[in-house]
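Researcher: Please translate sequence to structure tokens.
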Amino acid sequence: MPLAAACTEPRRETMTKPEAPRPTTGRMPVIFAAHGAPILLDDEAWMGELAAWARALPRPRSILMVSAHWEARPATLGATRTLPLVYDFHGFPERYYQTQYPAPGAPELAERVRALLGARRMPVADDPERGLDHGAYVPLVAMYPEADVPVLQLSLPGEPEELFELGRALAPLRAEGVLVFGSGFLTHNMRYAFRPGVPQWAREFDAWAADALARFDVDALLDFRARAPAAATALPTWEHYAPVLVAAGAAAEHRERTHFPITGWWMDGAFTRRSVQLDG
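Model: Translation complete:
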């Protein structure tokens, strides 16, 4: 994500306290987190909200991460061992390129994902030299700072329906202690980055997304480009929205409720911090 170098210190917002999730039914929740950018690591309030969210979640055995910053077809599995991070941004202060997150790899999870996709005749590839990108590691630094939960990253392979079906194929992992974790942004227009003030189009799209997710209106979520207000402005490109479709697919068969552990606006601007938890 080519953010400009002239990043200012994030403005603090009132923290949104995560709701206490209901007791689980033996399945892990599915989550989608707004991941900010590397400068999120300096935002104590937002980091605190992410940490509190993680504490309220059941402890995962491993994490399957789908990030807005890796699109590859077919669905591709990243490294299954600890590798250097992918610093997929430029123009930031040097300290952001020194961030480390040496989470263990998850080779057993990779084999399980390969089997689940194979059972549905979905092609899968491997990129064993690809480490975690900033869409993956930034929220994980906040949520699991000890880097002691195995992590596997999976690419985003295609169109909305394909992403939803990918999530459906991954759904059995929830009963195996795996946290299916989407990382992106529900609004993402870089022309408005670091401009103060929340535009009306951003409020409208955020409200639409919240309603569609709360009702779990899959048809609307998949057809967002036609049904959502100001979709072309909120998402000139839609890779940051894509992970929520994988999350929705993974939750589709067993979902009791949707809630939003984190809301508000990043730096009082056009990027919604709305994050989603799908329980069931």
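Researcher: Any highlights?
Model: Residues 1-24 have pLDDT under 50 and may be disordered.
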